[in-house]
């Protein structure tokens, strides 16, 4: 590497003096993740304004073998978005590249820069009477390039798939600074390897995403939302099966809460209220969406829930009677991360198992936690419609000290147990958040040598110097 000042001055020449941040007050928000647990440092935060500037910055870093840590909205749930502790490298923030470039209703496509905030991409689509369906609780902060790089999932993946299913094309700056223009809006393109697929979910380790072309869908005008209490996870799975058979693609979301999760969401986040007064071990938040036939949709949902209450597969239910009531139900779901953060030292997992085995997963994981970590309180919320379970063990203040364990070591032991159980049931240890720094050990533990070899070969081919997001994924 050349001398630090020479390098920083060269960066300033590319992006402008004020877009290279070095003072701690300016850089701090970029160096710590949103939970405040993973922290790193870098030589600077660099904020380019165009693909050409990203390209020049990365070429400079390649020349001097300086690591590049790309960042979008910094909402990563696995320590993926912050630099490492050692302080080498630059943090490359896409924040200034936040423009919506075009909305094309006739092609059902939208094109945006990587730093565009998800909620703004959705609003631009809506203004053209179209839907961009990715829905995450973090959508007011996360950026579309980060969504691509993590292959984000969220609550509507049941109906529309994950980000991988929603990307039409990408523009990517490669590790040597060259620009790959794959920003196509085609539905069919069988001209060789699917390069865009390789970058989706690669967490900034293979290239820097600079522009994104996405699929749009008809904008639903009506929704029917319900909150249903069930006594068992198996009962929730039965209800899900019925909803899928009855409503097919109109079923937009099917989210399962443990009773304990609902309790702390109402206790820690102001304004939340229990939609059902009686206590139950599990609750489902479900939503149907349609463009036409609002009345019919609500009465069909009411009828299905009525049958479930009658035959005992549902224990109680509340149907939203207005937009405001539906929003209040969704607020419960969107408050989960905040409630967990406030409750104590939390270790959240992002596993997936086949839907029919979610009940086994819960039973085995709860038993393992009770025997090995009796101080832990257990909470869960699941995107049940696609088998994705966020299983969380929380240690209240004092519990970690009392157990005599170091927090990092404790987290590693809890995680290993949870991941072993999910993988043992034919599932995965990472469904939608990615690997980041936090789950690298699990990647090594559960992936076969053959798959790891393929990963390393891809990394070597695209980033031979290993400058793109080192310490993440591999
Ligand atoms: P960042 O956090 O900044 O980065 C994430 C990763 O992508 C990092 O490895 C980073 O280096 C890389 N990266 C970012 N931008 C680029 C780029 N332009 N080019 C190359 N690499 C890049 N996730 C879900 O999937 N489903 C959920 O339901 C969900 N709910 C959440 C709720 C809350 C409250 C929070 C805080 C997070 C949630 N997440 C969820 C996780 C997170 O929001 C997603 O992973 C999101 O896609 C990250 O986007 P970001 O812009 O914040 O990326």
UniProtKB/TrEMBL annotation:
GO terms for molecular function: catalytic activity; FAD binding. Keywords: FAD, Flavoprotein. Residues 38-219 form the FAD-binding PCMH-type domain. GO terms for biological process: respiratory electron transport chain. PROSITE patterns: FAD_PCMH. InterPro entries: FAD-bd_oxidored_4_C, FAD-bd_PCMH, FAD-bd_PCMH-like_sf, FAD-bd_PCMH_sub1, FAD-bd_PCMH_sub2, FAD-linked_Oxase-like_C, FAD-oxidored/transferase_4, Oxid_FAD_bind_N. It comes from the Bacteria. Its cofactor is FAD. Belongs to the FAD-binding oxidoreductase/transferase type 4 family. This is FAD-binding oxidoreductase. The lineage of its organism: Bacteria, Pseudomonadati, Pseudomonadota, Alphaproteobacteria, Hyphomicrobiales.
């Amino acid at each position: 590497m050349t001398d630090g000042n020479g390098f920083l001055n060269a960066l300033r020449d590319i992006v402008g003096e004020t877009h290279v941040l070095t003072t701690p007050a300016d850089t701090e928000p970029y160096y710590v993740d949103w939970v405040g647990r993973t922290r790193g440092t870098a030589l600077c935060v660099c904020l380019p304004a165009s693909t050409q500037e990203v390209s020049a910055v990365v070429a400079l870093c390649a020349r001097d073998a300086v690591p590049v840590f790309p960042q979008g909205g910094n909402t990563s749930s696995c320590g993926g978005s912050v630099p490492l502790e050692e302080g080498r490298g630059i943090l490359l923030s896409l924040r200034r590249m936040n423009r919506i470039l075009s909305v094309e209703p006739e092609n059902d496509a939208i094109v945006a820069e990587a730093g565009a905030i998800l909620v703004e991409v959705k609003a631009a689509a809506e203004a053209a009477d179209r839907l961009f369906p990715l829905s995450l609780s973090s959508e007011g902060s996360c950026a579309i390039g980060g969504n691509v790089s993590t292959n984000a999932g969220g609550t509507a993946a049941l109906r529309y798939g994950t980000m991988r299913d929603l990307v039409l094309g990408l523009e990517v700056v490669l590790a040597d600074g060259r620009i790959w223009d794959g920003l196509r809006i085609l539905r069919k393109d069988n001209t060789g390897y699917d390069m865009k697929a390789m970058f989706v979910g690669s967490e900034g380790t293979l290239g820097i995403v600079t522009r994104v072309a996405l699929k749009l869908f008809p904008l639903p005008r009506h929704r029917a939302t319900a909150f249903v209490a069930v006594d068992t996870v198996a009962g929730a799975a039965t209800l899900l099966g019925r909803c899928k058979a009855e409503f097919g693609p109109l079923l937009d979301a099917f989210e399962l809460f443990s009773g304990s999760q609902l309790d702390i969401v109402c206790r820690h986040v102001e304004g939340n209220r229990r939609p059902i007064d009686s206590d139950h071990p599990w609750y489902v938040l479900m939503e149907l969406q349609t463009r036409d036939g609002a009345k019919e949709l609500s009465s069909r949902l009411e009828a299905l829930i009525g049958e479930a209450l009658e035959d005992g597969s549902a224990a109680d239910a509340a149907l939203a009677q207005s937009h405001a009531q539906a929003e209040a139900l969704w607020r419960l779901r969107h408050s989960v991360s905040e409630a967990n953060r406030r409750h104590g030292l939390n270790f959240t997992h992002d596993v997936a198992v086949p839907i029919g085995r979610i009940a086994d997963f819960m039973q085995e994981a709860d038993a393992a936690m009770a025997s090995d970590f009796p101080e832990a309180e257990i909470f869960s919320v699941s995107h049940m419609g696609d088998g994705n379970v966020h299983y969380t063990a929380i240690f209240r203040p004092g519990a970690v000290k009392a157990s005599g364990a170091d927090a990092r070591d404790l987290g590693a032991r809890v995680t290993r147990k949870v991941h072993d159980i999910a993988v043992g049931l034919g599932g995965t240890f990472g469904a939608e958040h990615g690997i980041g720094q936090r789950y690298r050990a699990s990647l090594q533990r559960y992936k076969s040598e053959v798959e790891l070899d393929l990963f390393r070969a891809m990394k070597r081919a695209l980033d031979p110097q290993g400058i793109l997001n080192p310490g993440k994924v591999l």
